[in-house]
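S.,

Sequence below, as promised.
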Amino acid sequence: MKHVFTLAICSLIQINIFSQGILVQQDKDANTLPQKHKNIIGIVGAFETEVQLLKDSLLQEKDTTIEGIHFYVGKLKHQPIVIARSGIGKVNAAITLTILIEHFNPKYILFSGIAGAMNPLLQPGDIVIAKKIAYHDYGRNTTTGFIERPTFNPYNFKANPITFQSDSLLLAACQKAVQKISLQKIQTEKPKIIIGKIITGDIFLANTQLNKQLRTQFKADAIEMEGAAIAQVCYQKNTPFIIIRSISDTANDSAVLDFEKYGKIAAENSASLLLTMLELL
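The prediction came back faster than expected:
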């Protein structure tokens, strides 16, 4: 009996030491993560060209890596900012944004990037500020056609909206910024800036016929590959957001060539609008 009691005491001591070791390690790891910043604003883009102008303008820049993703912390227009490049597609966008929100607790999320035009009045260099954003590839394909269905929130398994709405205050700030900004011209006309609907899916659309079909179905102005995933994560985490997209191509049969030709200027136009908007927040 004495030996059993001694073994039990030794086991408890070992468990306590082991537990303390874990706690020490957890605290050590926690100290390597960035502190949550008061009033920080999160900015995300998919391509390097979509975030390069913003990174170049960042003051007091500090590069922090979390789970392999780089986050650039500093100031833009006197605002505390964290910038991340997500990579292309819905899953990459959702992963990057989730990590950003959980570690930095931003008050707003701003997405800046490029898109293909669906509205026939839009040309490369123009900008669409998303008031509404939705998936075009989430739903049911039936014998009568495609039916939109809602995604579901994994925190409570309730249905999300089929169409997400940008934050009204951020939308108002964008509208004010439009009055102050000067954009780079691609065509001979001054670039247009509209408020409209953007749709998202995991395809780069370079098909004139499919463009017309999707525009008719979704009444969309532009198409891209990350925005609705950004909107869904923000909605589920109760974080205000806005999506800004400049047109790089018209999502038709020549979209690949147009994207290569106009993509960089379009990305810079979107970033310029975002920078002007920051002054008004």
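DSSP finds seven helices and twelve strands in the chain.

Coffee later?
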